[in-house]
Amino acid sequence: MTRLQDIAAQLSGYDPSALPVAKAQEFIARLVPRVDAVESLPLRSALGRVLARDIVSPINVPASDNSAMDGYALRARELAAEGPSAFSVAGTSFAGVAFDGGVASGQCVRIMTGAVMPDGFDTVVPQEYVQVAADGMVTVPAGVVKAGDNRRLAGEDLRLGEPALQAGRVLRPADLGLMASLGRAEVPVFRRLRVAFFSTGDELRSVGETLDEGCVYDSNRYTLWGMLQRLGVDLIDMGVVPDDPAALEATFRAAAENADAVITSGGVSVGEADHTKQVMAQLGDVLFWKIAMRPGRPMAIGRIESNGRQAILFGLPGNPVAVMVTFYAFVRDALLAMSGATASPLPMLKASTLEPIRKKSGRTEYQRGIVSQKADGTLQVAITGSQGSGILRSMSVANGLVVLHHEQGNVEAGGWVDVLPFDGLV
Ligand code: AMP
Ligand code: MG
Question: Is 110 exposed, middle or buried (0-12, 13-18, 19+ CB in 10 A)?
Fold first, then answer.
């Protein structure tokens, strides 16, 4: 297992007291292990889970050439180049019940969508193009089809032996359908990641309790719960832990013994007087970073251990907006990687800002924005007023995060900025 200081030594320009977001992400990517236990699940239970093995197609899909239309199957070379061509109908091929008679030249076969193409037939004329006479003869005008039209080829969706889905994929509805089309009833997925989380701070009260003088309700445990729930991990909610060394140690130990990752909020600020940092450091290999970002400057990262069991620790700042921003900037991708998922960078939108944005170069800023579409179809974004890191309402009214990159400076009104949309993310 690589020690934290060795990972740090491998990163050029690593500075724990002014760490660029990209460096912190790289560090974390090198730190986190992946689950390797695999379980087999019925198809529907695998939605949202991470595929653990490549799925190779055991069959051609479709299994035979078949028709894409209701119409008449024929041999294209029997169509006259000019003027209409007439065919007699040898029989009908239905989806699921193929025509199995012989076909002489000058004959066609009535065919339904999905029905197997008769041997040697290469083209389907949609029924709306033909005229059927009283004696059953079918007349096809010249030029309505080319050879191969309206025919689906065997294996055109998936060829026998071809990888249909790759390990590391988070399974989506189409993937379930695809695997069903291969006749698979069960799929191998990685076991779910177990994530423990709790809040620290003597001023915190849980919902349902009375709010004493100088106290605030613990909101972070609810935002974290929501974000983790969306990631599909198993959750262990360890509540609010007071600023007491024994209580903190017992909670951290239980978390390290039962979870793959532990997420805390609060108590990691520089100069923090409480015991959170001290207990974290004592239970493992933990770094305390100052990240060049806003909000979310302080963060603890590392491994904690108890009775031979380990967990990755993400010690997030306490401010409610900082918790969400650091989660999306660092924790989300790390937990997906730990779950066995192949990295899929979050999609950014480009929007023009409605107002000038003040931004200091040398740190990444995440401002809350409301994106809307302009008449010309492009996007615009308005910043949601005060950007204080304690103002959780700014996250609630926003529909995206305006990401102002490390090197970026002030942006003028009308300038383009990157926006991370919440839809699909939260
Ligand atoms: P800290 O990082 O512990 O210094 O906390 C920074 C600010 O976030 C303080 O104002 C805390 O009261 C507040 N805070 C910390 N944890 C929570 C929480 N779980 N819910 C709401 N606010 C919190
Ligand atoms: Mg605190």
Answer: buried
For the CA of 389, the nearest ligand: 1
- Range list of H helices, 63-108: none
- Condensed to tens digits (0 to 9), the pLDDT of residues 9-61 reads 999 989 999 999 999 999 999 999 999 999 999 999 999 999 999 999 999 99
Cα(267) to ligand 1 centroid in Å equals 8
Atom 11 of ligand 1: nearest residue by CA position: 318
- The parts of the chain modelled with pLDDT lower than 70 are 426
Protein residue closest via CA to atom 18 of ligand 1? 218
Helix segments in 122-239, DSSP class H: 173-181, 220-231
Q: Which of 212, 216, 326, 389 to mutate to test the pocket of ligand 1 (most atoms within 8 A of CB)?
A: 216
CA of 242 to the centre of ligand 2 (A): 10
The pLDDT mean for the chain works out to: 96
Structural domain including 88 reads 67-152
Do the Cβ atoms of 363 and 292 come closer than 8 Å?
A: yes
Half-sphere exposure of 359 (CA within 13 A, CB side): 29
CATH of the domain at 13: 3.40.980.10
Residues 169 and 260 occupy one common structural domain? no
Q: Are residues 231 and 304 in the same domain?
A: yes
Q: Provide the percentage of residues in the chain whose pLDDT is more than 70.
A: 99
Ligand positioned closest to the Cα atom of 203:
1
Residue bearing tokens 């055109």: 156
- Write down the pTM of the prediction: 0.90
pLDDT in tens, 188-232: 999 999 999 999 999 999 999 999 999 999 999 999 999 999 999
CA angle 184, 46, 41 (to 5 degrees): 65
Which residue lies with its CA nearest to atom 5 of ligand 1?
318
Residue 76 lies in a domain: yes
